[in-house]
Amino acid sequence: MLEPTNNNELPPIPGKRYFTIGEVSELCNVKPHVLRYWEQEFPQLKPVKRRGNRRYYQRQDVIMIRQIRALLYEQGYTIGGARLQLSESDENKESQKNSKETLHEIRVELEEIRDLLSC
Fold it and tell me: Looking at per-residue confidence, does 5 or 24 come out higher?
């Protein structure tokens, strides 16, 4: 996961399940219209929409917004560059997940072979 450098200046994320766009705006120091724009530009950012098309962000959305903010405002990425950086990060996470699953399967098979040989 990307670690933004100045996000320690941002307020801590409360232990709530859902946040309104106003709350996220304050937590991430980004205006609400910017958040709505980023939803169009970053496919990873998908807040839940309920009554009257109101947005409700979850904790992982707030973390993602802070990552996007750090890439754009602190590290100087363009929107396209930040999108690419986040997608590469997602691919790395998926690759690590697949590697862990593969290693687990190999371990199980090796244990089965060991049990067969010990009989």
Answer: 24
Long-range contacts of 36-42 (CB under 8 A, 24+ apart): 38/65, 38/68, 41/79, 41/83, 42/68, 42/82, 42/83, 42/86
Spell out the domains of the chain, with CATH numbers in brackets: 7-118 (1.10.1660.10)
What is the chain's mean pLDDT, rounded?
86
Q: How far apart are the first and last CA of the chain?
A: 45
Q: 95 or 22: which carries more pLDDT confidence?
A: 22
Listed in sequence order, the residues at least 6 apart from 118 whose beta carbon sits closer than 8 Å to its beta carbon are: none
